[in-house]
Amino acid sequence: MSKFFTEKFAALEPYTPGEQPRDMQYVKLNTNESPFPPSAGVAEAVAKECSKLQLYSDPESTALRKRLAEVYGVKPSQVLVSNGSDEALNFAFMAFADEKSPLAFPDITYGFYPVFAQLNHIPYTQIPLKEDFSIDPADYMAIHKTVVIANPNAPTGMCLPLQDIEDILKSNPGNVVIVDEAYVDFGGESAVKLVEHYENLLVVQTFSKSRSMAGARLGFAIGNEKLIADLNTIRYSTNPYNVNRMTEFAGVAALEENDYYLQNAKTIMANRAWTVSELQKLGFTVLDSKANFVFAKSDKIDGEKLYKELKARGVLVRHFTKARISPYVRITIGTLQQMETLIEKIKEILGA
Ligand code: PMP
After folding, report:
1. Is the domain of 310 the same as that of 166?
2. What is the pLDDT of residue 292?
3. Are residues 64 and 212 in the same domain?
4. Do 222 and 273 reside in the same domain of the chain?
5. In the predicted structure, residue 207 carries a pLDDT above the cut 80
6. 223 CB near ligand 1 (under 6 Å)
7. Does residue 26 sit in the same domain as residue 152?
8. Domain presence at residue 105
9. Residues 178 and 110 placed together within one structural domain of the fold
10. What proportion of the chain, given as a percentage, has pLDDT over 90?
11. Ligand 1 center–CA 112 separation, angstroms
12. Are residues 245 and 265 in the same domain?
């Protein structure tokens, strides 16, 4: 830390992204990316926009918001687009949480929530998941806090039924409930349909997972017009050109080819079912995942050892050191061939 670093951030613990080693070609199952490339129209759209890079992007992302509104059955004024969904989450924390309306989220969830809370000096409560790693909706009833729920949750992959989300919304009319649906396209049920009924609902999604565009950095939020206007106040005070022109039109092109991505999500779900059954045959406990990853543990090997042994054999998975989940590894679901390699290496490790 330099002597110039401001005291207000001295204790900030930044987010640690999943490792991206360059030393060799890994079977990369550690950051929940899609194993499939973007659809053909995306590359064409990017090439076209490249020749206009001397011009700023549209600060309203008009074309993309219009297309998103059509696909999700809302008005363009109910859509905000962002530089990855991380940015939409940060904007939402800034806009809707403070000392009077502190944050509440599970103890085991996406690691960026406490970081954004600390960055913005927002107090937060981490509510323990139940013993079986599910969220107890009763913990969030009339809590008088800004609630953040990843649904499906990460790194568990488990879903909260939409009815429970609705009960949480109803019991907290004075606070915003942020539902982070980064992984919803792999078998979850979206809360977008509730937006017209609850002025306190903000749904956040991303193009990074089911739409194969993690490297383009594109996310979006859908909610009541007034919530979106508040987010725009923050956006125009931070970075009005937050979505670059290549990414905006890559997003438009991806939405034109939605069937390709729906098909890929189906393939991932089938590969997930195969992987779960193979892991179970090897004695693993696997949580019920509706995401493009599974969270699994074995009595025969602890999580950190399994992660290291797999890495030594060219397969990257994610391990978290937090005590409650340290026996587990999080495995991204890739192609069937990648999953076959994973299972083969695990058999080798357990047999050794
Ligand atoms: N929410 C959750 C639950 C995530 O796991 C991630 C990905 N790490 C994100 C949001 C952010 O994804 P992105 O910024 O790539 O849209």
Report:
1. no
2. 98
3. yes
4. no
5. yes
6. no
7. no
8. yes
9. yes
10. 97
11. 8
12. no
Query: Given a cut of 70, is residue 126 above it in pLDDT?
Result: yes
CA distance 51 to 270: 40
Structure tokens at 138: 């009763």
Residue of 34, 86, 91 with the most ligand 1 atoms within 8 Å of its CB, for mutation: 86
In a mutational test of the pocket of ligand 1, which residue from 32, 80, 85 has the highest number of ligand atoms less than 8 Å from its CB? 85
Q: Could you tell me which of 270, 275, 292 has the C-alpha nearest to residue 183?
A: 292
Euclidean distance between CA atoms 345 and 352, whole angstroms: 11
Angle, helices 245-256 vs 258-281, to 10°: value is: 80
* Final residue of a structural domain among 227, 256, 285: 256
* DSSP states along 14-51: ---PPP---SS--EE-SS---SSPPPHHHHHHHHHHHT
pLDDT per residue as tens digits for the range 136-187: 999 999 999 999 999 999 999 999 999 999 999 999 999 999 999 999 999 9
Q: Is the pLDDT of residue 352 over 80?
A: no
Domain boundary at 202, 237, 256, which?
Answer: 256
Residue 190, SS3? coil
Total number of domains in the chain: 2
**In which domain, by residue range, is 291 found?**
18-37+259-351
Q: Give, for ligand 1, the residue of 93, 113, 179, 206 to mutate: max count of ligand atoms closer than 8 Å to Cβ.
A: 206
Q: Within this chain, do residues 47 and 192 fall inside the same structural domain, yes or no?
A: yes
> What one-character DSSP code corresponds to residue 312?
H
Q: Report yes or no on 12 lying in a domain.
A: no
- Per residue in 164-174, is it b (16+ CB within 10 Å) or e — as a string? bbbebbebbee
Q: Is residue 7 part of a domain?
A: no
- From edge to edge, which strands make up the β-sheet containing 201-206? 79-82, 219-223, 201-206, 177-180, 146-150, 103-106, 124-127
Are both 28 and 58 inside the same structural domain?
no
CATH number at residue 121: 3.40.640.10
